[in-house]
Amino acid sequence: MLKARQRGEYGNANEIHLKSARYHRGMLLRLADVSIRYPAAHPGGGERPAVDGVSFGLAEGEIGVLIGPSGCGKTSLLRAVAGLEPLAGGSISLGDERLGDAATGRHLAPEQRRIGMVFQDYALFPHLSVAQNVAFGLHDLPRAQREQRVAELLDLVGLGSAAKRAPHQLSGGQQQRIALARALAPAPRLLLLDEPFSSLDVDLRERLAQELRAILKRTGTTALFVTHDQLEAFALGDVIGVMHRGRLDQWDSAYQLYHRPATRFVADFIGHGVFAPARIVDGADGPRVHTPVGDLSDLEECPLSAAYPGGECEVLLRADDIVHDDSSPVKARIERKAFRGSEFLYTLQLASGERVLAHVPSHHDHQLGEWIGIRAEVDHVVTFPRQPS
Ligand SMILES: Nc1ncnc2c1ncn2[C@@H]1O[C@H](COP(=O)(O)OP(=O)(O)OP(=O)(O)O)[C@@H](O)[C@H]1O
Asked: Entry's PROSITE patterns (predicted)?
């Protein structure tokens, strides 16, 4: 039986679009071919759209996360969903409602979208108490119901006792929880969060990310989150979108992004790894891949040699694909090492000059310059065309 990659079910940027289209069925939030352009600052500038033909869908109750390097268009996309940026192309729908459509010029005003937002700077009103901040979007409710809803939300974020305090009397993490309670109070159809933890310290960020996920799941809230922090994305998201230069390279689970990156950019952006020259040859018992760290065989997933001219390609070798094994005939010299607690991240140079990375348990504390034995243990082979050197 052909393996998934051999059947070509993923791994091709053109197919991502089709896959996104498939995602659209039964989705609450649907983006179809969305493009956003800013006016050019200089004559002839602004040729490239800030967001370029992005499509994806988010199911009810799901948490989606957009990640990517600075300037890749994450915030622009989030702002377009909120109604704060006009669409240059494509459409955005929420449930049965078309929020924006470049073809018809439809643009529902932000306040009519019933979308909640949380930003990195909390944006609490300093002159209002915590309870008044949370009650801000609840003007239409009778007083008793409003007070009950505020109490519920403050309990939900674990700050029931802070109702009468002023925002400045709270820590950054507490203020961000109040901002979350305020955004959730009117029961938005969708919650948008733009780097809500970026001004907090690392420990607190991790804890708050877990708390936030629990709160969103408990309330069944559908949320779209922007971050540049991979670990935060993995901790929070059911589905993660990797953006690159305005395009969505892949919209998938964390597992798929790591093990089956659709593009070279995603492979490079997620996790530690290198691309090594390789050649695929077809054998009776399946394809075999010649790599600088030895042959890979008995593979769960691997393209056939015909996928590349002469079978010549580049193979992704992640740090956790390389195992330290002194009995291996393949030797590599330790060029750099970074302590990561339970393990070291070694940068190794092979006799051929190729470099690979390896996670090695930290009780194997070898010296820089030392030669150690390594072998590759790879289940899913990820390959890309050779890049001209
Ligand atoms: N108001 C604006 N006017 C002109 N260009 C803009 C505007 N806002 C964003 N851009 C440009 O659009 C592109 C995408 O920006 P955006 O803020 O969406 O990226 P981002 O991925 O959120 O980046 P970061 O992580 O740094 O916030 C960038 O090239 C940016 O310079």
From this structure: ABC_TRANSPORTER_1, ABC_TRANSPORTER_2
Whether 44 and 78 map to the same domain: the answer is yes
Last-in-domain residue among 267, 290, 306: 267
**Centroid of ligand 1 to alpha carbon of 366 (angstroms):** 44
How high is the ipTM of this complex?
0.96
Residue 110 sits in the same domain as residue 227: yes
Query: What's the rounded Cα separation, in Å, for the pair 318 and 268?
Result: 10
Cβ neighbour number for residue 46 with a 10 Å cutoff: 13
Domain's final residue, options 267, 298, 328: 267
* Domain of 337, in residue numbers: 272-385
Nearest to 185 by CA among 225, 113, 137, 114: 137
Query: pLDDT of the chain along its 389 residues, tens only?
Result: 334 333 333 333 434 444 444 445 679 999 999 999 998 765 555 567 999 999 999 999 999 999 999 999 999 999 999 999 999 999 999 999 999 999 999 999 998 999 999 877 767 898 999 999 999 889 888 999 999 999 999 988 888 899 999 999 998 888 988 998 999 999 999 999 998 887 777 777 777 888 889 989 998 999 999 998 888 899 899 999 999 999 999 999 999 999 889 999 999 998 888 999 999 998 888 889 999 999 998 777 888 888 999 999 999 999 999 999 999 999 999 999 998 888 899 999 999 999 999 998 888 789 999 999 999 998 788 999 998 76
CA of 251 to the centre of ligand 1 (A): 20
68 C-beta closer than 6 A to ligand 1: yes
What global pTM score does this model have?
0.85
Helical ranges in the chain per DSSP H: 4-7, 13-23, 74-82, 130-134, 143-156, 172-184, 202-218, 230-236, 254-259, 264-269
Measure the CA angle with vertex 363, ends 362 and 364; round to 5°: 85
Q: Which residue has a Cα nearest atom 1 of ligand 1?
A: 38
Domain total of the chain: 2
Residue 73 in contact with ligand 1 by CB distance below 6 A: yes
320 in helix, strand or coil?
helix
